[in-house]
């Protein structure tokens, strides 16, 4: 199987039933993507495929042959952390850190969705060409990524900085 992982070609021989999550962690040596629930409910395994966020625990690796996969390890550059990674550090957007890679990949994918005008469940104007990254939009779109240790405020602050929006505040 041939994949492009973090801008590098990767060729592996694995069982066709191998999940993308297991391929990344066990065969490609990239432990940043976490196995949480292994049922698609927690978001810890979120990675980017061609820039779109997916739950790698629910995806068979063979489905993504020849596609560009980005994990949390592939976000930083030789010059430093990705801006969202730096914002997570600055705003203490992690405590145990288990959900952090999935949160970061999901937020990057979410930003792309918003920039493309993809509506969510809470988008007010479905006919509009743009979507504002409002507090409601961001919370709705990040609702599939769970933080169990209480770093939610730091996560929200980091994403707010990354989007360059005003303080999102707390949910009503």
Write up this protein:
The chain has five helices and five strands; from the N terminus they run ββαβββαααα. The protein is α+β, with helices and mostly antiparallel strands and 172 residues long. It has two domains: 2-74, Ubiquitin-like (UB roll); 83-163, DNA polymerase, domain 1. It has a five-stranded mixed beta sheet with strand order 2-1-5-3-4, with helices on one face. Strand 3 and strand 4 (52-55) form a beta hairpin. Helix 2 crosses helix 5 (152-163). The radius of gyration is 16 Å and the shape is globular. The chain starts with a strand and ends in a 9-residue tail after the last helix.
Q: Which terms summarize this structure?
A:
172 residues; Ubiquitin-like (UB roll); 5-stranded mixed beta sheet; alpha+beta; 5 helices; 2 domains; DNA polymerase, domain 1; 11% strand; disordered C terminus
Low-pLDDT stretches:
167-172
Could you give the order of the helices and strands?
EEHEEEHHHH
**The CATH H-level homologous superfamily of the largest domain:** [2Fe-2S]-binding domain
Radius of gyration: 16 Å
Instruction: State the separation between the terminal residues, measured CA to CA.
Output: 48 Å
Query: Can you give the mean pLDDT?
Result: 92
Strand order of the largest sheet: 2-1-5-3-4
Q: Which CATH top level class of the largest domain fits?
A: Mainly Alpha
The proportion of strand residues reads 5-15%
> Mind telling me which CATH architecture of the largest domain this is?
Orthogonal Bundle
